[in-house]
Amino acid sequence: MRLFFLLIVVFSTLLQAYDIDQMLDLYRKDSDLSKKTKNESLGHLTIYTRDDLERMQAHNLGELLNSLRSFRYNENMLGMSDVLHTDPSLYSSDTVKIFINNHEITSAYAGSGLFLYGNIDLGFVDHVEIYEGSTSTAVNSEPAIITIKLYSKDPVRESGGHLQAYGGSRGTDHENVSYAAASKDFKYYLYASRSDIRRTHYTHENHDISRDYKQKHALMTLDYKNIKVGAEYIDHKADPFLSLSMFATPKDGDMSYKLKRVSSTMSFLDDDSLKLSLSFIRMNEHLNFNMDRTLWTTNNLDVMFLPQDSFVVDSVDDVYSAKVEKKILYKANTFLLGADYIKKSLHDVKSYENGLLDTEPTFVDNSIFGLYMQDDFAIAENQIITASLKRNQYYSKTNRAQRNFHTLQTRLGYIATSKKSTFKAFVSSMEIPTEQYALAFAKTNEIELLRIVDVSAEYARHINTATLGFCLEYLQNQNSKILIEQKDIPKYYDNYSASIKYDYDFDPFNSLKSMLFYNRFHNPVNITQESVTGGFVRLLNTYEKFDIYNEVDYYKEYSSEINGYMYNAGVRYRATPSLIFSLKGVNIFNSAATSRYSYIKMNGFTPEQKSLYMSPIDSTFSVGMEYSF
Amino acid sequence: MKTVTLLLIMFFFSNLGASDIEWESLILEKMLTSMSSRNKVLIYTKSIKMKKIVEYLTDARVRVTKNCKRADFVLLEEDEKELCNKPEIVFNYRIYLHNQNAVGVFFWQKGRPTIRFSLKRLEQFNLQVRGELSKFVSSNQ
């Protein structure tokens, strides 16, 4: 007790060295809301705090996804966010789950909302948590190997209005406005934004390849006593990038997504140990692709002589979910018992290929009933063993394969923390159904479940103001969905990952973060073992009223010509507490690693496979301002 | 000296870290001592959260009293009916706006912790904010 008071006195005395503005800023940094939401037992965690987001001037989520161990920001052939993009697969990130305020964003067709939210504007976001590796079965409705959680700004802390605008290269512009208010029982936060994002255009065979997009986004959170309600609207219109063109020769086309989402969480009992979450997501999709030839054309005569192809689809993608969870404390155990129900429905599908109506379009009507339990058992003051189990029962009425079946997730972990170090280790086994877009390419109804075994360990040592960390992960995939499209490839493939990180705080306002990683993985397309190295160094500095940001990201694939480094820099000038001016450059030297997109080039009557290389991160400079009122 | 202090602070952060309540008590202490030059500042509160914050106060001049009438300042977390007519420090801007005894407020606004003092109400209680916190005195409210 004496030591406690002595420490308080020492702490207080030391802080007298700071003026009141610095003290308020230190308080703001130290009381970041991520400290209340993060959960170390969920996996290997990277946090971007409010302070990080502001000083990095992070405009879009994609900017945060380039300095992680197991993936980088990437896009598929439609220009959609697809961080696990594997050419020529259409979409590879269904095991990457994304949440807003603990509500999962998913879709009936793709299994993840990442394709729409992977590069969402961050004006409404307070902080971001990214869990790499398997997470607790209590978090995701279906298994995930990466979980991204966004938390919107807290109405109590935001109280008042805020305007932000920036303009940048190629005519890009973005504006957002927000307002928050709070009384004793009633709190709300309103946010609206408009983005007109102009991307780098490429030309191939005299065809313009564009992934420009326009987005309108509105979000509302409302808290009344023990009830939290959220509502969101996104109107996203985009150019189709490569669309589904076999020759990488897209012609006029467009894509649009209109998303409406409502969600609520109610907590009951004095200790809020009983929670009920409800959510509804509706996504109206419109795809209009025109191209010389669609990817799936296999007949050589068709390839040579058919006139231009077109593919137009309109559909409605609904997801209903309900989840009830009870936390029980018993001796050294913290039990979580829960049940969830998800209904995924893709309906009202109107699909035209070359103007002809598809009389049997893909539809989905899946119901998933899940039961889960987790026990965090404290074996000592700073050590826990976490064990979780989930069983999902699927009732499928889709016209594709996979009928009624069940999946199982199991996970075991050990976490030890002390003032000087943290150690985490997890072993998990997950069964995952193949998503509907992949089933649409299936040549057989005998599709087996994808199984993933994930073993990982992380150790971090805190030495004064520095942190040195290591992480190892082994991930085995069985029955990858890529098997649907290919034959005669191994049933299993293995991935290995190792990383080392070093963080150093020069003082509370100046810090360095860095990481190096090495990944070795099996490429199911080329049936080869491939290696990737990468890393980043990030410096965040404050000098008087200036916040300065510098970051270098490096990425290299050894079996291809994909490699490069990306240099980002930014300066924020806090003219007054209410007025901020900013200048930022992303991929300043236009030297970031590219992504590969395969296409076919006809050599007489012989198709030859070629590749286009384009960076998912454009070289962009922007100037912005923020005003609070 | 400042470098040494910074290193010491960083050592402290790395080994203990500062909780919200520690910061809140330090900043509250700054507010209280900036308004009084007396050797003893008596504060009174009924709020459970405020009582916890008060436990972390380290300035020997600031003491807690159980008698509202003896207090120099009252700390209010929410709307509470106080009859002792003392200057109040509140932690909610809405209460600050409506409570005519609220001379100072410590609250979050636009994502940042903020301090504000009301010149009119300070004068009403014959108080003055000295030192670096005087820049937070506002004549508008």
Question: How would you describe this protein?
Answer:
In chain A, 9% of the residues lie in helices and 57% in strands. With 629 residues, chain A is mostly beta strands. Chain A folds into 2 domains: 1-28, no CATH class; 32-628, TonB-dependent receptor, beta-barrel domain (Maltoporin, Chain A, Beta Barrel), CATH 2.40.170.20. In chain A, the strands form 4 sheets. Chain A has a 22-stranded antiparallel barrel. In chain A, strand 19 (383-396) and strand 20 (405-417) form a beta hairpin. The model of chain A has no long low-confidence stretch (mean pLDDT 89). Chain B has 141 residues and is of the alpha/beta class. Chain B has a single domain (18-138), classed as 3-Layer(aba) Sandwich (Rossmann fold), CATH 3.40.50. In chain B, 35% of the residues lie in helices and 23% in strands. In chain B, strands 2-1-3-4-5-6-7 form a 7-stranded mixed sheet. The radius of gyration of chain B is 16 Å and the shape is globular. The interface between A and B is large, with 41 and 41 residues.
List the topology elements.
The complex is a heterodimer of chains A (629) and B (141).
Chain A: H1 2-15, H2 20-30, H3 34-37, E1 44-48, H4 50-56, E2 96-100, E3 103-105, H5 114-117, E4 125-132, E5 146-152, H6 155-158, E6 160-168, E7 173-182, E8 186-197, E9 202-204, E10 207-209, E11 213-224, E12 227-238, E13 254-268, E14 274-291, H7 300-305, E15 309-330, E16 333-353, E17 356-357, E18 364-380, E19 383-396, E20 405-417, E21 421-432, H8 436-439, E22 450-463, E23 466-478, E24 492-507, E25 510-523, E26 528-543, E27 546-557, E28 563-576, E29 579-586, E30 595-603, E31 606-614, E32 620-628
Parallel strand pairs in A: 2-5
Antiparallel strand pairs in A: 1-4, 2-3, 4-5, 6-7, 6-32, 7-8, 8-11, 9-10, 11-12, 12-13, 13-14, 14-15, 15-16, 16-17, 16-18, 18-19, 19-20, 20-21, 21-22, 22-23, 23-24, 24-25, 25-26, 26-27, 27-28, 28-29, 29-32, 30-31
Chain B: H1 2-15, H2 20-34, E1 41-45, H3 48-55, E2 62-64, E3 73-76, E4 88-90, H4 93-98, E5 102-109, E6 112-118, H5 119-124, E7 137-138
Helix pairs in contact in B: 2-3
